[in-house]
Known about the structure:
Elements: H1 6-40, H2 45-50, H3 53-62, H4 67-115, H5 121-167, H6 179-206
Amino acid sequence: MAVARPGGFEAAEQQQQQQEVLSRQQERHYRLLAELQALVKALPSACQQRLSYTTLSELALALLDGTVFEIVQGLLEIQHLTEKNLYSQRRQLHSEHRAGLKQELFHRHKEAQQCCRPHNLPLLRAAQQREMEAMEQQIREEQRMMDEKIVLELDQKVIDQQSTLEKAGVSGFYITTNPQELTLQMNLLELIRKLQQKEAETEKTFS
């Protein structure tokens, strides 16, 4: 009677474990795909047409191990912090203009008028009006430059997101400024975020 070698048992056991892992991954892939297909139905029809079965299947594969969920969460947190910081800077600039420069100029003009002789008031007021208009122009220019800075920094964050998700193998993501492609990528991000929420709720239910 032949005796099976221990190595044979180990190989068979390893093969069985691998098959079980593949089976679990396949089940998770089908479940993620089904959930993505359900979520897509809430999107505009034009976007639904762009998200084919193949695209959603590839997205579900990329989401299998949960790493992409963590990447997206991190990217969105960075984006929200950046937006909050930039708009805080804009509010601060606006406040400085209103409470600082304008108030200072108003008080200076008022004091000058009080010290001015009546017959010189028209000339003084005309000069002060020109000074106020020059300041308004300066303020508008500074606010325009701040708005440009905000747009550029937010655009850079979008490029960072595109690059990171492309490197992570997420279908549909690559560096582009095409409005239609950007809309599609935004919808894909929303799908991933909603799916992440569902996964977290499922884990809570079974924990």
